[in-house]
Structure formats: structure tokens, C-alpha cells
Amino acid sequence: MLKKLLLAVVVVLAAFAVFVATRPASYRVSRSQAIAAPASTVYVQVADFHQWEKWSPWAKLDPTMKTTFAGPVAAPGSSYAWLGNDKVGEGKMTIVEARPGEMLRIRLEFLKPFASTNSSTFTFAPKGGGTDVTWTMEGHNGFAGKAFSVFMNMDKMIGNDFEKGLAQLKAVAEAEGQKSPAASAAAR
User: Fold this and answer.
1) H-run or E-run covering 7
2) So where are the chain's domains?
3) Handedness of CA 171, 172, 173, 179 (dihedral sign)
4) Burial status of residue 82 (CB atoms within 10 A of its CB: 0-12, 13-18, 19 or more)
5) pTM for this structure?
6) I want to staple 173 with a disulfide (CB 3.0 to 4.6 A). Which of 42, 56, 146, 158 is the partner?
7) DSSP string, 102-171
């Protein structure tokens, strides 16, 4: 009887391993938001990591999170590292490509709770008097990531945060866009 039970467990584990191996090797999460502000105004809020605290969906999850900034502001090589509680973990973002008012590509490195490296891209497309902003994250799954994806849908898990962040970015950028040109120049 014990042999049959062990054999059944081995068969189930083998079937699960085969199923996990057939899962997609990559994932992509993308959300968009129309913002009633010029692309240049929205772009600055994203490209300057010092501004993320105003709109990032994760910034308020840990008020004591430690952050460090390095490199040039809003340009390739600019980085933002964080160390926080279990809700935000630890990681680093580095700008790898920047086209002001058009596109920003970031290498996103998570160190804790799970190590992974992803690509995050923001695109800014002028539309009418405003801007359509699209936030996309892409990554690759190893065996453990594929197993995780059996139980957790990455699009639902991260997509909700992207929607919240874009809504907060909209509020910040539209408020910034409403400032008079003289006030905006004085703030810089």
C-alpha cells in the first residue's frame, strides 16, 4: 500500500513538473492612462526618480523605506535603490534609455523577497492637448517563476499597481500642468 501511495505521489509531482515546464517563459504587463498634460510635463515626473514618491503605487506602503539616488538626474545611468518592509522589498531601478517626452526604459532589479531582473518601459504619446502614457513591464520566468505563475496571475498582481500608479501620476502631472508658466519656471 505504501509503495502505491509513493508511486502516486511521484506521478503527480512528475505531471506537475511537466505542466510547469510548458508554462510561458516570459510575461508582459501593460497599462495605459490618458493624462491632460503635455508629454514633457508627464515625462519629468517619471524620468526624475526623486518625483516617484509623489505617484508611485508602492511609495506609501512603507513610510520608513530607505531610498538612495545615484547618477545623473533623468538620464541613462540614473538609479534609484530602495530597502523597505515586506510589502516593498528591496531593489534598484536604473535608466538605460531616455528619449525626453517620448520613452523611458528602466532596468528593474528586485533583490528581495525574490531576485529577478525585468525591463520596465514608459511611453508618452501626445494626444489632443494631453498625453497617453503606457507603462509596461516584461520579464522571463525560470522554473520557479513558471511554478509561481500556475497559482498567481502576474497581470492581475502587477496590473492593479500599475493602474493605481498611473492614476496617481495623472493627478500629479495634471496639477503640475495647471501651474502658470512663471510658477513652473520658479519651481525648477
Assistant:
1) helix 2-21
2) 30-178
3) positive
4) buried
5) 0.79
6) 42
7) TEEEEEEEEEESS-EEEEEEEEEEEETTEEEEEEEEEEE--HHHHHHHHH--HHHHHHHHHHHHHHHHHH
The answer to whether residues 135 and 162 touch, using CB atoms and an 8 Å cutoff, is yes
pLDDT in tens, the chain (188 residues): 888 877 777 777 777 666 666 666 777 889 999 999 999 999 999 999 999 999 998 888 888 899 999 999 999 999 999 999 988 899 999 999 999 999 999 999 998 887 889 999 999 999 888 999 999 998 877 656 655 665 667 777 788 999 999 999 999 999 987 774 544 444 44
77: cell is 545611468
Phi, psi for residue 93 in degrees, rounded to 5: -115, 140
Q: Please give the Cα distance from 60 to 56 (Å, whole number).
A: 8
**Residue reference for cell 538605460:** 96
DSSP 22: T
**CATH top-level class for 30-178?**
alpha beta
- Using CA atoms, how far apart are residues 117 and 186, in angstroms rounded to an integer? 38
